[in-house]
Amino acid sequence: MPPSIENLLQQAAEHFNQGRMDAAAQAFQTVLDNEPGNPAAAFYLGLIRYRQDDYAAARDLLKTAAEKDRKNIQARLFLGFSLNYLGQLAEAETEFRRVLKVASGSAEAHQALASVLQKKGDADGAGTHSRRAVQLAPDNADILNSHARYLMDGREFDAALEQLQRALAIEPNNGPARLNEILVRIELGNLDQAEALLAKLQADADAAKWPDLRLLQAKLLIARDQPEAATRLLRPLVDERPGFTPAAMELGKALSECEAHGEAAAVYRELLGANPNSMELHFNLSHALKGLGDLDGALAEMNQAIRLDPGNGDNYYNRALISLARGDYAQGAADYEYRWQSSSEGFIRRPFDQPEWRPGANMAGKTVLVWSEQGIGDHILYGGLISWLANAAGHCIFECDTRLVPAFQRSFPEIEVVGAVAEPEARTLAPDIDMQMPLASLMAAIPGWPGSFEFKDRYLEPDAGLRADIAERLDGAGLGALRVGIAWHSARQRVGSKKSAPLALWGPILARAGCAFTNLQYGDTDAEIAAVQQDLGARIYTDPEIDRFNDLEGLLALIDGLDLVITTSNVAAHLAASLGKPCWLLLQFNPLWYWGLEGGGALFYPSVRIFRQIEAGDWGPVIAEVAAALVDWH
Question: Cα–Cα distance between 108 and 119 in angstroms, integer?
Fold first, then answer.
């Protein structure tokens, strides 16, 4: 006689309680085969599938359990968790609100609802429920950890770290909190501390088995600009656990960092098959398609991401980059204003209290403070737009990097130029300032930009006396032939390695007769230059009196005395182009938006000629093309 349903459930429960999940799953499935819709079997089998990351199966089973047994709050709670993981945010929100109707004091439900609202772009609602969860359970390490996740999603990493330290003080071995502390350390750039914490977890016999550890190790490798190593680590993990979405997601990111955008797109498309409403997947697929040069596809995916999460500033900022690269400057400039709501690095507002500029604001007769943003190259690039503001406003005050103050003041005598320091100068805080704006917002402020704006060949002027002194040194060094300045490296975080073309590859260029090469590269270049001079027999002159990082006045004057500049995308390119100097740009396959994706010209700089990579990471053809052009140009 076959066992009764009650006996089968009892056996299954024993397996479940003893941690024998495969046997428990088989037993609960047998119950469901004999009695479809059994609420207890559906609930426990749903929990097992949830723990196995099979969220679609968990959703269906837990929905059955919740409908059959309306008193089972846990079934509805885990149903919400499953829906959340599947990207079905509206349905997940409904389930969590149902739980709170009958259990308003459930800290777990408040925190879960906060997670869903955060993904939907309702940061205020998410914050309300996350803080309520902490109020209800201030000594619950899991709740504190979840609140830290909310803060992490809002990029409040210092506050998140505080919550995680509270959680770990209560429960030192709380796995998720330990994992999140490593993530926060990575985001804060504390990579050595993150690595030390990861090593401690790996030494833990139980924790060492967690797939999350390999995932964290991969994230750390990506942060250290080692995406190839991250890819090698992630591929086996994805093969071992095909349902472990975070690993597949990180593999896609690592592949994109390796410029393997086609593979990355394939990973994201496969994941979207099971998670069609995942904003993050549409976002990442957009990034991969952009990397492939498919701007239309990238735009379509980013619009999907915006539809799914209309409150996410990252989506609009990245749509701006796509639109600007496509030449849709009106949409791009408008969306670029969302850069302050994005998580991208480098966007730091200056601490000014004057009214902020808004699109359409009347500047006539007004005193306008415009402050530079992002890196030194951006100060120079967007600084070329200052001429419009000088005419449109009653008076213009420009705050920029202190190294550029003399050049801009000399070149734009009609405006005031002050240096950007930690504590703003008194002039920038004066009450006569009617409004303030970030420099790159001039794209949105100039009516009809860029078609209505005349980009000048030359808008910065070097110090004449300094230029004459440097010219004498060049003559004294015997640089009487065609004078060519070179720069090859970018230290910009995350993208610098892709922008850089190692000097050792420059042999065909440096071998060109009749050229006298001058070092424009910032940083310690002595060893690299010595090696190239020994291996190739090429001479590269370095002016001993110019600090090529701090002395931009000297660098500007040096460049102005040259005939040609050949450089990768770094500050030397911006300085040369702002002087109207012929500038040949060796450009990586996926460049910054303002260099464009095709053609030999640059929007902002009429004197720039671009030589583009055909394949990501392959500088050989670019170097050969430049070397051939140098013969013809000479």
Answer: 17
Q: How buried is residue 337: exposed, middle or buried, by Cβ count under 10 Å (0-12/13-18/19+)?
A: buried
Give the count of beta carbons closer than 10 Å to the beta carbon of residue 573: 30
- SS3 assignment, position 503: helix
Which residue type occupies 275? N
Cα 474 from Cα 80, distance rounded (Å): 71
pLDDT (tens digit, 9 = 90+) per residue, 327-365? 999 999 999 999 999 888 778 899 999 999 999 899 999
Token pair listed for 42: 């559906």
Please, what's the b/e burial string for 177-210 (b: 16 or more CB within 10 A of its CB; e: otherwise)?
bbbbbbbbbbbeebeeebbebbeebeeeeebeeb
Mean of pLDDT values over 75-83: 94
Peptide bond into 450 cis (omega under 30): yes
What is residue 504's DSSP assignment? G
- Alpha carbons 109 and 100: distance in angstroms, whole number: 7
Query: Rounded to whole angstroms, how far apart are CA atoms 562 and 518?
Result: 9
What residues pair up with 324 in beta bridges, in sequence order?
Answer: none
Query: pTM (2 decimals)?
Result: 0.81
C-alpha span between 273 and 288 (Å, rounded): 17
Centroid of chain to Cα 166: 29
Phi, psi torsion values for 399, nearest 5 degrees: -100, 120
Percent with pLDDT over 70 in the chain: 97
What 3-state DSSP class applies to 537?
coil
Helix (H) or strand (E) holding 112: helix 107-119
562 pLDDT higher than 70: yes
As a whole number of angstroms, the distance between CA 492 and CA 199 comes to 28
Say which residue the tokens 């009695």 belong to.
35
The candidate with the shortest Cα–Cα distance to 561, out of 379, 624, 546, is: 546
Strand partners, 518: 485, 541
CA distances from 50 to 60, 78, 79, 352, 529 (A): 11, 8, 9, 49, 58
Quick check: 590 and 259 in contact, CB under 8 A? yes
- Rounded Cα gap, residues 315 and 490, in angstroms: 27
What is the distance between the alpha carbons of residues 34 and 36, in angstroms, rounded to a whole number?
Answer: 6
Is-contact 79 50, C-beta < 8 A? Answer: no
Over residues 596-610, mean pLDDT: 95
Q: Is 331 exposed, middle or buried (0-12, 13-18, 19+ CB in 10 A)?
A: middle
Question: How many other CB atoms are found less than 10 A from the CB of residue 464?
Answer: 11
User: Quick one: average pLDDT of 266-279?
Assistant: 91
What's the confidence (pLDDT) of residue 514?
87
Contact 584, 572 (CB under 8 A): no
Helices and strands per DSSP (H, E), number in the chain: 31, 10
Q: Percent of the chain having pLDDT more than 90? A: 75
* Cα-based distances in Å from 316 to 116, 211, 440, 443: 20, 33, 16, 16
Per the structure block, which two tokens stand in for 80? 């919400």
Sign of CA dihedral 594, 598, 601, 603: negative
The upper half-sphere exposure of residue 297, i.e. CA atoms within 13 Å in the direction of its Cβ, equals 14
Q: Provide Rg for the chain, Cα atoms.
A: 29
